[in-house]
Amino acid sequence: MLTRIFPFLGWFKKYNSAALRADVLSGLTVALVLIPQSMAYAQLAGMPAYYGLYASLLPPMVAALFGSSRQLATGPVAVVSLMTAASLEPLATAGSPGFIAYALLLALLVGGFQFLLGVLRLGLVVNFLSHPVVNGFTNAAAIIIASSQLSKMFGVYVDKAELHFETIMRVVTSAIHYTHLPTLGMGVLAFAIMMGLKKVNPKIPNVLCAVVITTVISWATGFNHDAMVDISAIQDKKAQTLIADFNETVTGIDQLATKRTGISEIEDEAKASKNVIGYYDAEHDLSVVAYEAKLLKHKSHIYRETLRNMLFNGVEQADGTILFYLQDAVPAGMTADGRTWRIKVGNKLLKTESLKMMGGGAVVGNVPSGFPEVSIPELDIKVILKLLPFAIIISLLGFMEAISIAKAMAAKTGQRLDPNQELIGQGLANMLGACTSSYPASGSFSRSAVNLQSGAVTGLSSVFTTVVVAITLLFFTPLLYNLPQAVLAAVIMMAVIGLINASGFLHAWKAQKYDGAISIISFVATLAFAPHLDKGIIIGVALSLCVFLYKSMRPRVVALTKSDDDILRDASLHGLRECDHMAVVRFDGPLFFANASFLEEQISRRLREKKNLKQLILVCNGINDIDASGEEALSLVVETVRSAGVDISLSGLNEAVLAVIKRTHLYEKIGKQNIYSNTEEALCQTHDKAHRDGTELDCPLSTYCRIHSNS
């Protein structure tokens, strides 16, 4: 009982020093991959890079302690990070304090939902995400994730558009206008190191090597070269005017946001006091404010884009200060410093006394030392209701990824896996992680593979991973300052290459054409609606349910006859001749309210088509369940067949179905003598009677009956 509540107690049975050494080594190896990966994934989620370290602190340890898999490595992962960003971007600006607060609350909701599913033993709910849907979504997500890193690879800055492909078009346009070649070089170098080491020796931590080498190069060459200057240092009136206009729009947007908050409060008061006129007045005012904000945001975007496209040359003065002139506009007699400078423009007000000019590439920058603050995310019911649908999708998607990885490893190690216990572990990891500044986490395929390959015996390896991350947060964060953003982009792009699986579409298509179609539609919908990734999943799940319902409403009803190998087979599928006087009909599926009338239609059609029919055998091997509607339909079928002057028999009824027809007295109506344990017995017992005074000279079932009667 105790090990069910605390699964980690089972680790120490027959535990020895050799196992401890293996777990320590595995934990260290996974940590060396996790630290750079987590920082990259945090930025993919719209969070500052160091929040990836926070998400790598408690979640790996808690998930291992309370989960059932001993090798599953939990922490930030690509798909969940992308889903986090997609869920929160409509609510707040990426990287802002509000965005971070929402991300922590989202982690708490994700964990709470997973924990609840685990405690209630509802792990099977993940089956709503069918394999074709997940395959289509994962392939699309991999492309979206990889393409979302292009701006960091080229060293360009663009505003995100409403749809992802529009954002990529903006990136391409900006890259054509200007690409920061040292940034692109850093990204390409990181790719070359990771791919080269992977080919030479997969056991070498290629991600860590790429990070260390490029960070050292970045530090040694002064890759990051920013300058904080007064607006007067920019020697271009148009640029100065644009900065003033941009600041005016930002101030206007902030004022409208404050105004909207006040009107919303008035609207809530009017609604509570049932003041209908006041409520509609507030609704109108909100619409006006929303429209004004939309216009200002558009103007802000235009100003921001224009400022970002301005390229400057720096001219160093005698006193050490730098004046910035538009390219090709440096006054005669002055010598530029050889760098291309750009104004750093975000969504916030530009401080005219300390403008940030970028003369190099982007780096991670300051990473706070020490552990994150422990606190429960602020619970706001309105925000919770907005985040809940996304939390449910992320919960199911994250758990499906984790359990798939865990099952694959369990198959190799022979370990017993409990999906519900895994849900509890993942849920607790996300809930406790949320209290230590972690955004949603899940099981990682790449790091779990590293954990398994490096010989992890128990979940203690994940505990040691947490220890290494903790030591990094305490002592080594200053070393991460010069890590280029382009390298983190390369790390993400390398990681998601493994998610692309084109063969999955072909496999689904070969299995069932509709599964292949669902997978392709999920893929296209996810790409088309990105960054609204939930729409792609919802469309895929809806299509899967529609196909399931259609198949349930119209199950296969086949006519059986003898084939050349003396086995009863589907007559239409194999082009076989049927008997004129006997119909052997098999119903493949549960008989319930959704398909009860379909059985009646199929039997009635056969009665109309076969004028010389004397005996109908309903093969019930495929009917594994029956409800009241199904029982009523079966009763009507018996009446319809007999009223047409045709005998009816049932074969292959299982115990559950037989119990239902006995309770409803349908058993007596059919007659005990007309119910057979198998099709062979039913056919052989009724064949002679059906052909008495018959006109058929060569019955295809006669040979079958002789063979089975003799046997």
Characterization of the model:
The longest helix is centred in the middle third of the chain and has 36 residues, at 237-272. The protein is α+β, with helices and mostly antiparallel strands and 711 residues long. The radius of gyration is 34 Å and the shape is elongated. It has 28 helices and 13 strands. A 6-stranded mixed beta sheet has the order 9-8-10-11-12-13.
- Average pLDDT confidence is 90
- Please indicate the percent range of residues in DSSP E strands (runs of 2 or more): 5-15%
Would you tell me the structural class of the helices and strands? alpha+beta
Count of DSSP strands: 13
Major beta-sheet overview: 6 strands, mixed
The 3D shape can be described as elongated
Low-confidence stretches: none
> Termini, distance in Å?
54 Å
Strand adjacency order, main sheet: 9-8-10-11-12-13
**Tally of helical segments:** 28
Helical residues, percent:
55-70%
Task: Using the CA coordinates, give the radius of gyration.
Answer: 34 Å
In summary, what is this structure?
The chain is 60% helix and 8% strand. The chain has 711 residues and is α+β, with helices and mostly antiparallel strands.
Question: Any chance you could write out the topology, listing elements then pairs?
Answer:
Layout: H1 2-5, H2 17-44, H3 51-54, H4 58-66, E1 74-75, H5 78-88, H6 97-119, H7 131-148, H8 150-154, H9 164-177, H10 181-200, H11 206-221, E2 226-229, H12 237-272, H13 276-308, E3 312-316, E4 322-326, E5 340-343, E6 355-358, H14 381-413, H15 419-434, E7 442-443, H16 445-453, H17 460-476, H18 485-497, H19 503-511, H20 513-529, H21 533-553, E8 556-562, E9 568-570, H22 571-574, E10 582-588, H23 596-609, E11 615-619, H24 628-643, E12 647-651, H25 655-663, H26 666-670, E13 675-676, H27 679-691, H28 702-710
Parallel strand pairs: 10-11, 11-12, 12-13
Antiparallel strand pairs: 1-7, 2-6, 3-4, 3-5, 5-6, 8-9, 8-10
